[in-house]
């Protein structure tokens, strides 16, 4: 996996303690308005949500509930798949075999997460192929965070710590979502994300107690990833058009701002424990709310990145398109294999072996 043009390596120190290496140089947008629902069925559905029952694929559901799930789950699946790219960029440059194995396993896990969630989305009556076409033609969204470059080995640690850390905060809540297939996928995914977070934190902690240059590399990385990590939780609640439906129907159990605050509260102590700072001069503990207050997020940057104009958006999509094209022979072979087996099954007994 070669690095994208946006990812020219800035620093090339490893996290080996006390050792410095030389510096080298639309989504599925159903356009038609959702049909008016039968009020009786809608009331029954909402009563089930109120009783905290899980909605399963064959159950009746309002069309708007289905569309919201397809939108959110497909964006999530795309995020997992695009999310392999920034980290994949460092597989060939991991400093030790142990680090390489950990990173390979993590990147493979992300592919698996994408697959579970695509499968979950298909239970809502959409075809994975259509979702992937939407990703490749640029009409689907995926998480803004993956449009930032990985410039140093420390970024691999920081992604595990902060990005997976943010994902866990968000997805622990989604493990209680009202839609069964999504909630169940989240349970398993969160277990794996916990491993990712720990291995990332361990990389950053190792760097932070290394040489001054290693520590500076870790700090530089945290400085670059902190604010984009906060943006992962989405816009402020007042600017979040989807939260109304999602909360009403038990998909989101906590709001974007609540989850962001929880993430900040958890992360401040973790940064302190490894003697790194978070790049926010306004960060301070609020005795009244018992939360850590933080400074203003640059929402212009957020919307620019979401709109396709972040540091690596173009490279990410180009990499996914290339992977799709390069994989055409695998899909063709799988189809030919399936057709051959179907023909054998249909043949009279004793025919083809
Ligand atoms: N990036 O109305 P809301 C991971 C869009 S997985 C891009 O608040 P909602 C694992 C939003 O889609 C990370 N777009 O939306 C990993 C909407 O646009 P639309 C992904 C964003 O759905 C780690 C518009 O803005 N996780 O990290 C973002 O209520 C390491 C208005 O927003 C998930 O997808 C954003 N950050 O809340 C993998 C979790 N934020 O669709 C590899 C599931 C918002 O109307 C390596 N998703 N937008 O055109 C969610 O929890 C929610 O969908 C939110 C957004 C919280 C992301």
Describe the structure.
Helix content is 59%, strand content 2%. It is mainly alpha-helical. The chain has a two-stranded antiparallel sheet. Helix 6 crosses helix 10 and helix 7 packs antiparallel against helix 8. Mean pLDDT is 91; it is low at 11-28. It binds Phenylacetyl coenzyme A. Phenylacetyl coenzyme A is lined by residues 71-72, 75-76, 79-80, 83, 110, 141, 143-144, 159, 163-164, 167, 170, 231-235, 240-243, 246, 256, 306.
**Percentage of residues assigned to helices:** 55-70%
Order of helices and strands: HHHHHHHHHHEEHHH
Strand order of the largest sheet: 1-2
Query: How would you name the oligomeric state of the polypeptide chains in this document?
Result: single chain
Termini separation: 40 Å
Number of separate strands:
2
Main β-sheet, in a few words?
Answer: 2 strands, antiparallel
- Total helical segments: 13
| Low-confidence segments | 11-28
Structural class: mainly alpha
Radius of gyration: 22 Å
Cofactors, ions, other ligands = Phenylacetyl coenzyme A
| Shape estimate | globular
Topology:
Blueprint: H1 39-50, H2 63-82, H3 84-88, H4 97-122, H5 128-136, H6 153-174, H7 180-208, H8 212-231, H9 243-248, H10 256-273, E1 284-286, E2 291-293, H11 299-306, H12 313-326, H13 328-346
Helix pairs in contact: 2-4, 4-7, 6-7, 6-8, 6-10, 7-8
The structure holds Phenylacetyl coenzyme A.
Quick overview of this protein structure:
This protein is mainly alpha-helical and 353 residues long. The protein has 13 helices and two strands, in the order H-H-H-H-H-H-H-H-H-H-E-E-H-H-H. A hairpin with a 4-residue loop joins strand 1 (284-286) and strand 2 (291-293).
């Amino acid at each position: 996996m070669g690095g994208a043009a946006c990812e020219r390596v800035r620093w090339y120190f490893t996290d080996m303690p006390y050792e410095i290496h030389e510096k080298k140089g639309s989504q599925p947008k159903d356009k038609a308005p959702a049909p008016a629902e039968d009020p009786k069925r809608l009331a029954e559905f909402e009563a089930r949500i109120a009783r905290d029952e899980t909605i399963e694929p064959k159950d009746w559901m309002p069309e708007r509930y289905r569309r919201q799930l397809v939108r959110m789950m497909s964006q999530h699946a795309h995020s997992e798949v695009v999310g392999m790219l920034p980290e994949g960029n460092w597989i060939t440059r991991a400093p030790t075999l142990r680090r390489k194995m950990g990173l390979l396993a993590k990147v493979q896990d992300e592919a698996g997460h994408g697959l579970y969630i695509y499968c979950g989305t298909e239970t809502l009556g959409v075809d994975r192929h259509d979702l992937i076409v939407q990703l490749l033609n640029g009409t689907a969204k995926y998480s803004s965070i993956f449009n930032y470059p990985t410039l140093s080995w420390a970024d691999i640690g920081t992604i595990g710590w902060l990005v997976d850390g943010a994902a866990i905060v968000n997805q622990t809540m989604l493990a209680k979502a009202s839609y069964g297939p999504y909630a169940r996928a989240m349970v398993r995914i969160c277990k794996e994300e916990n491993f990712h977070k720990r291995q990332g934190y361990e990389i950053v902690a190792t760097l932070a107690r290394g040489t001054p240059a290693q520590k500076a590399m870790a700090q530089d990385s945290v400085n670059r990833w902190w604010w984009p990590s906060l943006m992962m939780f989405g816009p402020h609640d007042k600017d979040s058009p989807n939260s109304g439906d999602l909360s009403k129907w038990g998909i989101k159990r906590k709001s974007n701002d609540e989850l962001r605050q929880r993430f900040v509260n958890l992360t401040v102590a973790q940064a302190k424990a490894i003697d790194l700072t978070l790049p926010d001069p306004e960060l301070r503990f609020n005795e009244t709310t018992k939360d850590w207050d933080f400074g203003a997020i640059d929402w212009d940057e957020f919307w620019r990145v979401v709109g396709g104009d972040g540091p690596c958006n173009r490279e990410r999509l180009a990499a996914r398109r290339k992977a799709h094209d390069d994989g055409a022979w695998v899909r063709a072979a799988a189809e030919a294999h399936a057709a051959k087996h179907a023909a054998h099954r249909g043949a009279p007994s004793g025919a083809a072996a």
